[in-house]
Amino acid sequence: xxxxxxxxxxxxxxxxxxxxxxxxxxxxxxxxxxxxxEERHGIVLAKNMxxxxxxxxxxxxxWQAKQICxxxxxxxxxxxxxxxxxxxxxNILYRYTDLVEPFGPDESWMDVSGSVPLFGSGEAIAYxxxxxxxxxxxxxxxxxxxxxxxxxxxxxxxxxxDAITVFNRENFKEMLYxxxxxxxxxxxxxxxxxxxxxxxxxxxxxxxxxxxxxxNAIGIIGERLWYYAMGLDMSPVVAQSDMPDVxxxxxxxxxxYDLEDNTDVWKTFLLLSESITKQLLxxxxxxxxxxxxxxxxxxxxxxxxxxxxxxxHLSLDIARQAMKVFYENYDWKCPLxxxxxxxxxxxxxxxxxxxxxYDAQDREESTKLEKEVMxxxxxxxxxALQKATIIDFSEKINDxxxxx
Length: 404
Ligand SMILES: [Mg+2]
What we know:
The protein is of the alpha+beta class and 404 residues long. It has helices spanning 14-21, 49-54, 62-68, 79-93, 116-119, 122-137, 149-158, 172-176, 189-197, 203-208, 211-218, 220-229, 262-283, 315-329, 352-380; strands spanning 6-11, 31-34, 44-47, 73-76, 100-102, 107-111, 141-146, 163-166, 248-259, 285-296, 301-312, 336-348. It folds into 3 domains: 14-80, MutS, DNA mismatch repair protein, domain I, CATH 3.40.1170; 85-229, 2-Layer Sandwich (Alpha-Beta Plaits); 244-403, Dna Ligase, domain 1 (2-Layer Sandwich), CATH 3.30.1490. Helices cover 42% and strands 21% of the residues. A hairpin with a 4-residue loop joins strand 5 and strand 6 (107-111). It binds magnesium ion (MG). Magnesium ion is lined by residues 10-11, 14, 106-107.
């Protein structure tokens, strides 16, 4: 079988680098991109190299970060802008293969095995990509080149910024086996603790372990990690076109009686949002755009949209944003018969900084929300929600007021 050529491209300090593109005066200062300072999102999402060296860490509060680095320049996050750059970069990658698998907004795997005759070795292709991205966006990238996805990802981490690392059959043991086991994807804090209890500290230790002992000690993940360490990962690069394509998620409901005031609408939005959140979580998405759909007794649907600066996935946030769009656009000249919410412009939630940000900030909020939604459910009953796809909009499916 022909050896695969896999690349992993990782944009360096993505959010901070995008922010600095049009602020060259900040290039030699420590900079952090933060959730908006006045809200509860006042937390570090990304930092530049200078801030990183001083000790600023992702998920610190702005206050903590400034204790460590008083001269830190704090910038607001602009997700719509990051998404735009993410797309531009992805289109550069598509020049070299259509086998591109995005992993968060700033990382992608590529299978360039079929492109070698056209563009040269994996390393040569990596070099071209790196220079294309730099010339066309001003951003730098680290690229790992190897014969499987796991080692390619280790390669993009190995040397950065603006660097290429090749792990081939000849050098991978020498270069990778001294690295700590938790530098490998799939080894989180819990797994690493378990491994260390077994005396396994490095990737080399993993490769030297007995696969059955690993499996007995930490389960199926142990077996998989052994394969990874041995360079036996065969998982394919999955092109985005082969992934399930969800472009928007929407829910709406039609009531037998009119919705007459903001409270009616808010309650309905909460119910719709809960169902949207469930599907967002299933797909591992955060949404950057919200659309509110309204229909009065004339049976004409009106839609209003807004782009969000902070991505949403929790139902209380979705309901709040929907309410904001609603306030800004509806004047209650007549009562409403149907309302709906759609979310779109998705980004993946598996980006580490995003996750830590939400874990830290939103746990309390989401618990409160669960309770609120449960209370509403008790009052209105489960039937208050229907999937938009199965609703015939001309029918009065839900007797909303009867639940009151
Ligand atoms: Mg990155």
